[in-house]
């Protein structure tokens, strides 16, 4: 009898999860159930599965609303009927075509409310009669329509508390107070489950209405095969032609990559092609190749990563740049005959190029067939408190206090209500958004399966997420973007433009086998380089003295939280540095994991050990691997594999304590390790960026700055450029560009770094200069560029007119005289009809450090000097960073400038890891424990005096801080007579603060990883 059920996918309306909805129906003995969420089909696939588990016949449809107005409810007679509704909703969501008051659906039943009854009803159209509407049926105009009426018993909530929650959701949706919420925005108080018998009794005087309702339930069914692949099947139009083209391309690539007579590579290509053909995945490979081909034709750089890099066919097609033979990557990790879903390629482009690639995909394969995966953005607790609190009318101050202290017990009754209902909203979907990179390319029009929506980013999305996509037969193409590739691209272009040198950066042997690159790597000189610039990664590289590709590949995975948290990172470092001080505790570990000293580092290692030690099947090994990577997690499936693993180990005669230890190590991956191919892809890109940093450091750092950096703020990359011999100069209207630029060893910061200068103006200044020549003076600049007095002052303060030789003080006075309070539209008639009068300005002297304080105010860091030059103290520390390895277990006193700090929670409170530079510009690291921080906390960016004890851990020194104090700058000379402002500017010096909520990595004594053979 339930033709109109809402789940919480009816956003900011429904209060029941799909599971709750189905379970409540099952408890009442309901045999047929219809899900009709508002303007969405998000939950229908989960709904179908849950209903069938409970023995309920699932029926699906959509409740179509325009705003709060209910137009009609559609119920699909069969699955194809949903496509009709999806197309109407898609037209509305994506193209702004109005929702029809009366749709022309052939494969759906349509149920109208009393407020929207058509003059004539077709065979598939009915009127929904609520319990509250029954007394209207005594009217003649409705009596003649009883034969076209059905029971309308919507379900939106189940308890009084959930009804109140529904009202709160409606208030949030309408951005209004609960007390002001109109009745037409709220559902009826009867929208909950009631027994079938009770409903029949309510409508007992109208048996035809009951019959009509049952007729709809009987005639509707949803047949849908979850396991059917639904991606675009063929690239050329047929399986045979696809395979022929793929084979031709693969062998052409084979010759290009390996030469003519590489038998091992040839055999592997043939083996892979056979599997690809058997699994019908030739089309998937060719579509990916087609996207890469277009990218190459545009001169874009890409990185193919993830498990796809295990494939030599992908390598030969140019999808990836990882040779699977070199790294012993096995294809079965990517594709095997047990796998029914398509492969999964992850491909990165520069953040500047990605939208062009996306446009190509949508245009090439048709907008009806391509869309992004959606994601459900859930209510988060802090935002919940604010949203719910606003609905209850709490003032901002109380909301601030409440969101900061969510667990605090408040006496105020209203606050208690806010907390109570806020808790209920956790995990509720709040809005749909776009998956960051997952694209679906479908064989059929996507509206056969979903309505599409158009988020602000401008590409359509489906109404369900990647997990549902996979369940119903879609595998996404991951089209990603990153700044690292933008940096590499821009450096290569800049080197060619400025030095006339063409770099074949795609030739990976160029960087991987370079001795000087490996020296930089082993010393952790990698700031600005993709993935290997963070303090933790640079520390790891130094601990490993990493000087080759294979060790970097391992380092890229062991830095991941799962490997590090399990203690395997720590043990890998020990074994790498002490290869003669451990034993493989079983021969399988030596045979299968010899390259990583018997330590599980990659996801594949789980499969290797499960297969070769545990003796489990390849399919079970893959279940383990997927569970460890966070995909397809099923506790019951995982438990079965675990039981099988131990049973198989016992059958093979392995000692129980050894098997238990091995499984503990497998579990410790916890979903945060990389597959080896993925690590290798990252390592290649890291090497490419490192090669550019080593041989073209200034062009590289300029490109890092222009791509808005990576782990650190702009100031750190400016420092790196200076350390590499660059002369750093402030923006200049005659030499500068919107972005930073370089002439020889002179690096001009760009107008993009000036917060108060709009992008439009930052682009216009150099554009006008190129058109009509350099600016001759401030007056000439004002004549040619439409600019306000505040923006002009910013340019003067930063020194953008220093070419004129006129002091800043005089320029500021001139600017005020020339612009004053003029109206921009009258600028020519008021300023330039007559020659500009010459003014005699008094000579104004400037302190040598005034420029530095101008720079701090505008850029947040000084350019014309270092922060150390601005200190009151002349002390610079007793030890320098490059000497620390000589001071193991000794106390040192240092003066340093704060670069970054990372927050890490412990049982005793918060601790931090700091990164600093000394007066020589060299980096070092510190550890700050909770008891020390309580007495000597961080006080923002700037220079600090540090006292602590050095701990050298495998070549890498860290200072455990016992005391620290922030050192004051000299008084700001610009405010010599203003006591309040003399020390304000130094507070604008920034620091990088990163937050993590994981526990600190365990120490050696906490790990318990055996180093000797277990018997």
From TrEMBL:
Domain of life (superkingdom): Bacteria
InterPro entries documented for this protein: DNA_pol3_alpha_NTPase_dom, DNA_pol3_finger, DnaE2/DnaE/PolC, DNAPol_HHH, PHP_dom, Pol/His_phosphatase_N, Pol/histidinol_Pase-like
Assigned keywords, A-Z: DNA replication, DNA-directed DNA polymerase, Nucleotidyltransferase, Transferase
Molecular function, one GO term: 3'-5' exonuclease activity
E.C. number(s) listed in UniProt: 2.7.7.7
Enzyme class: transferase
Pfam families on file: DNA_pol3_alpha (PF07733), DNA_pol3_finger (PF17657), HHH_6 (PF14579), PHP (PF02811)
SUPFAM superfamilies xrefs: PHP domain-like
GO BP terms: DNA replication
Domain Polymerase/histidinol phosphatase N-terminal residue range list: 1-68
Enzymatic reactions: DNA(n) + a 2'-deoxyribonucleoside 5'-triphosphate = DNA(n+1) + diphosphate
Keyword Transferase attributed: yes
Protein name, UniProt field: DNA-directed DNA polymerase
Organism: Chryseobacterium pennae
